[in-house]
Design goal:
- By secondary structure, this protein is α/β, with parallel strands linked by helices.
- It has five helices and eight strands; from the N terminus they run H-H-E-E-H-E-E-E-H-E-E-H-E.
- Strands 1-2-4-3 form a four-stranded antiparallel sheet. It has a four-stranded mixed sheet with strand order 5-6-7-8.
- The longest helix is centred in the middle third of the chain and has 20 residues.
- The structure holds flavin mononucleotide (FMN).
Length: 234
């Protein structure tokens, strides 16, 4: 479903491995050709999801450093994706699923990114919300000072339970889930493998929230990691 940037040789699996949250960006504008690729993908994703994802460019104020939260300090952010949509848990799952596709597309284009739930400000006029929609999250985008660092990996066995001996495709899928970004790296979910290749992703209790978005992100990684295996979501 994803269109890969011509400038990049990264496959989506390589993008999953290369991606880390980046919070400090250099002052290098994103090329128009790359913004066009992202915009085209956003139009396609909005059409299938019913979300109202928007790309905001050349807007430095959302991350100018004076947020009320100490978690996650950002610098140099001038471009970001607004993940807007209806206020319900189905939309939250879709925000994760479709937002992560954009994150990985950006990675294949040589860009860095970071999901942001808290540490940004909503700037009046930078984007418009449809009646009833909310901003679930934003995604900072640009050229990072560094490529970021690998988050602490949760053991695979803590991320899944299986009714059958897990086949290779399921382990590959879970290895991709292991690398998925999540709010404060909580990964408060469990993937269940049932008989007949039925797969279920369930939330665990979280004080922080964002679990539905985290599950959507993890499902995106699962689907890429599973490749062309035949399985069904419960
Ligand atoms: C839904 C969501 C919300 C997040 N919110 C913030 C945030 O407000 N501030 C921040 O600095 N990082 C935020 N992050 C980034 C996470 O801290 C990061 O994904 C996690 O620590 C794992 O690290 P990695 O992305 O480098 O693998 C968020 C991530 C997700 C998925």
């Amino acid at each position: 479903m994803l269109r890969l940037g011509r400038e990049s040789n990264l496959t989506l699996l390589e993008a999953i491995r290369a991606r880390h949250s980046v919070r400090r960006y250099i002052q290098r504008p994103i090329e128009v050709s790359k913004l066009d690729i992202l915009r085209d993908e956003i139009i396609a994703l909005n059409a299938t999801s019913g979300l109202d994802i928007q790309l905001v460019t050349d807007e430095p104020r959302a991350f100018d450093g004076s947020t009320a939260f100490s978690y996650g300090k950002f610098s140099g952010v001038e471009n970001y994706i607004v993940m807007a949509g209806p206020r319900d848990s189905r939309a939250e799952l879709q925000v994760g699923l479709y937002g992560e596709q954009l994150v990985l597309l950006a990675q294949t284009l040589g860009l860095n990114s970071c999901w942001v739930g808290l540490t940004y400000k909503k700037i009046p006029g930078a984007f418009r919300l449809r009646e009833g929609d909310i901003v679930h999250c934003v995604i900072a985008l640009g050229y990072g000072e560094t490529q970021g660092v690998q988050h602490k990996l949760r053991p695979l066995e803590k991320l899944y339970e299986a009714d059958v001996v897990p086949p290779d495709w399921f382990i590959s899928a879970m290895e991709a889930v292991q690398l998925a970004p999540s709010a404060i790296n909580q990964q408060k979910y469990i993937f269940l493998l049932h008989r007949e290749s039925l797969v279920e992703a369930l939330p665990r209790f979280s004080l922080v929230g964002y679990t539905e978005i985290d599950i959507g992100i993890a499902m995106c990684h699962f689907e890429i990691g599973a490749g062309d295996a035949h399985y069904k979501w419960v």
